[in-house]
Design goal:
The protein is an alpha+beta fold. 25% of the residues lie in helices and 31% in strands. Strands 4, 5, 6, 7 and 8 form a five-stranded antiparallel sheet that branches. Strand 2 and strand 3 form a beta hairpin.
Length: 131
């Protein structure tokens, strides 16, 4: 697999389109941090890291509206790709849907959202947009 983050986003996107309640994703440290951000910002119900002696799995419980069955995640867009990395410095961090969505960045302070990066005054690689 050449791009594990794109695979992570695609698995979530496909599970949302198929209306699954839970999706299993192979674990890595950056995927765990991205899942934690999605949980903190209210895009997923919860997650659980299942450790085995191999890679491990992340079980993500997806969040839907009770009445209309619409997912909390509308779009997941991969920004920085292995063939073309996208970086943003502290002065021009991206805004997603005029502040309604989030951009996830990989910085020297760890994997954080663009709002946290603005308060810490750091830039980094723009991993994805979520809204």
């Amino acid at each position: 697999m050449t791009d594990p983050i794109a695979d992570y986003l695609t698995r979530i996107r496909n599970a949302v389109m198929a209306r699954h309640k839970v999706v299993d994703i192979p674990a890595s440290n950056i995927k765990k941090e991205m899942t934690k951000i999605l949980m903190d910002k209210g895009y997923i119900l919860g997650y659980k890291v299942v450790e085995d002696n191999l890679q491990g799995m992340i079980k993500i419980a997806l969040k839907y509206d009770q009445k209309s069955k619409v997912s909390a995640i509308k779009k997941l867009i991969r920004v920085s790709k292995p063939g073309l990395r996208k970086y943003a410095n502290a002065d021009n961090l991206p805004r997603v849907l005029n502040g309604l969505g989030i951009a996830i960045l990989s910085t020297s302070k760890g994997v954080i959202t663009e709002k946290e990066a603005k308060t810490l005054n750091v830039g980094g690689e723009v991993i994805c947009y979520v809204y």
